[in-house]
Amino acid sequence: MSPSGSVAVATDSGVERAREKARRGRIPLSLKLAYSAFMAVLVPVYLFHYGPTNFLYFCDIALILTLVGLWMESALLVSVCAVGILAPQLLWNVDFLVQATGHPLTGMTAYMFNAQTSPFLRGLSLFHGWLPFLLVYLVWRLGYDRRAWGAWSALAVVVLCVCFFLMPPPRPDPGLTPVNINYVWGMSDHAAQTFMPAWAWFAGLAVGIPALICWPTHRLLIRLMPEAPARSPITSLSASPAGSGPR
Questions:
Q1: Cβ contacts of residue 165 below 8 Å, gap of 6+?
Q2: Phi/psi class of residue 132: alpha, beta or left (left: φ > 0; alpha: ψ in -120 to 50)?
Q3: 0.70 surpassed by pTM
Q4: pLDDT score of 96 more than 60
Q5: pLDDT by residue (tens digit) across 44-58?
Q6: Pick from 13, 42, 133: which is nearest to 85 by CA?
């Protein structure tokens, strides 16, 4: 390699390092610490009261991915969470407010008003209210990674299959046991829906979540948010060198 070529490579490498350094530190340390403290409480409490299967809920998966994305400042991870749960979590907020007035909408937040569940546990579940706004802020700071829709869609289908084929269906008195996780049997934890065959409901979720919920969110985020840098701290695999309602 000629001297000029070596200088060019060194210059490009230096520029790339400078850009990577500039991309770092965009999320305040105080926010990272506060979120980590919340997760340090929520995770062991949920494991004790609900068990590990509770973390199959999409919202709980997003909680964990957001924690990793915060510390890595990964546009891809926070974008995956945003495209996957912004719409459902906004529906949760609407349902919660309507349920509080005594007029149930979908029933998805009925557990928040169950007096048999401790106020502390229900208080932890209020993360549904602020998580979507946190994700909007994170995507605004880090940029929206357009790979997010495909990544979340693949993840969602796999998780739905696990919930439908391996996890408990609705039951009359589920208590704190996670059943009907991600509503794969209908909107109620106490009985399966009867509007259509179970396989049709499941197929509708597997197709409808990516196509009817996440795709419009994906397009909206592309339109409203800055695009993520070409290189994100988490790269795609192809680029690698080698009863209870949602808690």
A1: none
A2: alpha
A3: yes
A4: yes
A5: 999 999 999 999 999
A6: 133
